[in-house]
Design brief:
binds adenosine-5'-triphosphate; Alpha-Beta Plaits; Rossmann fold; 2 domains; alpha/beta; 328 residues
């Protein structure tokens, strides 16, 4: 299908499904490893990504950018193979027709207007009708306004991201890769970008975006691939990943009117794995299941006439969630 069949947010028409793709635009990584010198950035990853929106979730330094660059054909795998729509990604100019990449950094000359930037990209792709392709791409990201003829340095963060997306889409690729596309955006800009990616995914494009923020991935992606320390830690739909995360062990700091009584009452409860009295007051409780422990704690305290003063999860950092997923 052509880009102009995908309406902008202002259009109410439904997005037609892609037809003339010549097979699904699948991304296949087979035992892929990438080293930078001694650093293993991607470690033996095997995965298949099909049409729709897929979130690549992982903390900083996990290897997400490296993985996107391997898929774009900018980096050679040290081991394994990467194919996109059945073609090898590395050293294959044919792949550039299939892929659009929106890099994390603003690698754009800010003195150009949005239209000039997208036009330059269209020319690089040697498109037969540059003006037409640029107009379609600008329409798609809703930048077919006076803003297209302003210099990029006057743009908001959201507009800069959208013009990068327009440039990445100008040659109508079937695969769109976006590295941390929501970084620095305000909530309205985020919603706008999410809507655009949703529409592209629904239209049959293969959309892969990286993020270190759970909520972004939850709201946008059908499928989530969790990358930690270069490895694929978990993969599935968001609900599966969410379940893995909430059923993991948690550590709580608990302050109460009678820590000793509470500690002895909690030991042996099914949801509790361990209890320690803190030297400075309060308890540290290791619980097997977040929901079950939260319910049980209130009941136990009531039963023993103990008043709860504070209950704080102690290990809620994203890193601890990821570490758990890797270990499980
Ligand atoms: N050009 C490079 N030379 C050496 N090491 C690198 C290079 N690029 C990345 N790395 C290292 O490879 C690992 C993975 O980095 P990568 O940028 O792919 O992760 P990321 O998940 O995208 O993180 P971020 O969101 O912080 O960019 C990190 O340890 C990083 O320091």
């Amino acid at each position: 299908m052509s880009i102009d069949e995908i309406p902008g947010q202002r259009d109410a028409a439904p997005v037609p499904v892609q037809h003339n793709l010549g097979g699904p635009a699948e991304i296949v990584l087979d035992n892929v490893t990438h080293w930078y010198g001694n650093v293993v950035a991607v470690n033996d990853i095997t995965m298949t990504i099909g049409p729709g929106v897929t979130g690549l979730l992982g903390p900083n330094g996990a290897g997400k950018s490296t993985l996107l660059h391997l898929v774009s054909g900018f980096l050679a795998p040290s081991r394994g193979t990467v194919t996109v729509a059945g073609q090898s990604a590395w050293h294959n100019p044919g792949i550039y027709k299939v892929i659009g990449l929106v890099p994390e950094r603003d690698s754009v000359y800010a003195f150009l207007t949005g239209r000039q930037f997208v036009t330059a990209t269209a020319k690089l792709h040697k498109l037969p009708d540059v003006g037409d392709a640029v107009a379609r791409a600008l329409h798609m990201v809703e930048m077919d306004t006076e803003a297209a003829d302003r210099r990029i340095e006057t743009y908001s963060k959201g507009m800069r991201q959208r013009i990068k997306v327009a440039a990445a889409l100008v040659h109508e690729p079937r695969v769109l890769l976006l590295d941390e596309p929501f970084n620095g955006m305000d909530p309205r800009q985020r919603m706008h970008m999410m809507d655009l990616l949703h529409r592209l995914g629904d239209a049959g494009h293969t959309i892969v975006f990286s993020s270190h923020i759970l909520e972004e991935v939850e709201r946008l992606s059908g499928t989530v691939q969790v990358i930690v320390s270069g490895r694929l830690a978990a993969s599935g739909d968001y609900r599966t990943i969410r379940r893995l995360m909430t059923s993991r062990p948690h550590v709580f700091q608990v302050a109460s009117s009678d820590d000793r009584t509470l500690a002895s009452a909690l030991i042996g409860r099914p949801s509790v794995n361990g209890v320690e009295l803190n030297p400075g007051g309060g308890l540290e409780v290791r619980a097997g299941d977040y929901g079950a422990f939260s319910r049980e704690l209130a009941a136990v305290a009531r039963e023993h006439g103990v008043r709860l003063r504070a209950v704080l999860p102690a290990d809620e950092s994203l890193e601890s969630v990821f570490t758990y997923l890797v270990a499980s």
